[in-house]
Amino acid sequence: MEKEASRFDDPALAPMASLELDVAMFKSRWQFCDRITEYLSDILGQGHSDPARYSNFLSVAANELIELAFRSTGEPGRISFSLYRSATFNRLRIAFACEEAFGREHAGARSSARQPVADAGSDLVMKSDGTILLRDLATLFRAAIRIEKDGAQGIQIIADFPSAEDFQ
């Protein structure tokens, strides 16, 4: 997307689905990444003229983001996967605790604060290979992908994919 999509709390976004898991259970089997991707991608494909094509194409990006979350989680707690839809884009949001990404200086931050941590061109949180992954996914899928601080110890990966089916 050439311009940044709406903010996370945009009222134009309609919730589609949400899945919340215990991090320990999620990390107990790598195969959960594929199963969650399949579930979310099938929902994202709904309402398109070629649902299988749209969900198959976006499953590649969703799987990479879910696997990134799998590798990044280590803190006890919950991980949530949420889908939202607006007239022009679909949003995948993955939220989880990740204290080591921020260090101790962020421990006193207000839990309602949502601050950008990294985007597809930044390496503030991610190693360079993760940054390259996000930048490449954003370019390939014409998506706005960013990582934001979510409270004192959490982060959220937010990916806004265009609703149009004109992928090349």
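The record above closes out task 2.4. Task 2.5 opens with a second protein, given below.
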Amino acid sequence: MDLDGASAATTVLDLPVRGRWLVQNSPADRVPSHGTEAFGSSHAIDLVPVDAGGRSGRWSWRTALATERPEVFHGFGAAVLAPVDGTVVDVHDGEPDHEARRSQLLLVGYLLTQGRRVRAGAAGIAGNHVVLSLGDGGPVVLLAHLRRGSIRVAVGDAVRAGDVLAQCGNSGNSTQPHLHLQVSSSTRWEQARGLPMAFRHPVDGRPWLPRNGDIMDA
């Protein structure tokens, strides 16, 4: 989705990943992209690391009937990069990278526990995460579901776009390893508003937002 007419209110980011990634829950297709305005997530996007064939992980009998270890997924541990120059204003680590669920049967059961994760707040939903502020008054960029123990930055650090922040994981409200990215008005998540975002296209630098199901090479 080209955004040549992107407004000044749209935050344009560098891609926070390298390699091949599948796009899910893109605000290019609908807003709110995740079906909710909660936690400033109305314009969030999910990026799932995949192999050359577009698969997030090797299929086995466990894919259909059971949980799967996050380590069997293609991008578990892939580098997550700062998408913009900014200051680290929040870091949370220590949440486990839990078993992944691609089985439709198990996903139904997982949805029934969603309320518990919401009540746990940002840690329950975002898992291990880093938040960058673009200025004293925001906006802020949240990178979530990071691998436990992989975060390389601390609150107060100044980072440049392209710096390695952490690794892709499966913590928080995540059914398989992926990166959740959003731009929000503040870190007061109960009140935060989701804000429009776009990426710089890796070829020509124009503002661009991939759609659901797109596979992008970063």
